[in-house]
Amino acid sequence: MIVNISDYGDGDNGKFIEYSVSGLSVSQMEFLNRNLDEKTVINGELLIVIVSFDDELYPLQSDAAQIRQDDFIAREEIEMNVFLSSFLEDM
């Protein structure tokens, strides 16, 4: 499984991070699409996961995140990969 942040910032409903997840089987994508609380979309071979955040919990807004943005993005991608992997263990 490969997780990449494909978009982030301010949306209509506040702050968000959009993750593009590849390398999943069709059954894994469908399982996640049905069972995650976050907004999800299957787009071909990608699962798109959109996570909304309250302003105070948005991980990419701190001063440190602005200075070392690549590090914070990589950490968020790793954390989502671990979360989805553990979620798939229940499949």
Overview of this protein structure:
The chain is of the alpha+beta class. The chain is built from three helices and four strands, in the order ββαββαα. It has a four-stranded antiparallel β-sheet with strand order 1-2-4-3, with helices on one face. A hairpin with a 2-residue loop joins strand 1 and strand 2. The model has no long low-confidence stretch (mean pLDDT 89).
Write a short abstract of this structure:
This protein is of the alpha+beta class.
Distance between the ends: 15 Å
Helix share bin: 25-40%
Biggest sheet strand order reads 1-2-4-3
Along the chain, the helix and strand elements come as EEHEEHH
Low-confidence stretches: none
**Structure summary, number of beta strands:** 4
Quaternary structure of the protein: single chain
Strand content: 35-45%
Average of per-residue pLDDT values: 89
Based on CA inertia axes, which overall geometry fits? globular
Number of separate helices: 3
Radius of gyration: 13 Å
The biggest beta sheet, please?
Answer: 4 strands, antiparallel
Secondary-structure class: alpha+beta
Please supply descriptive tags for the structure shown above.
91 residues; single chain; globular; four-stranded antiparallel beta sheet; alpha+beta
Helix and strand layout, with pairings?
Elements: E1 2-11, E2 14-22, H1 26-35, E3 39-43, E4 46-53, H2 63-67, H3 69-88
Antiparallel strand pairs: 1-2, 2-4, 3-4
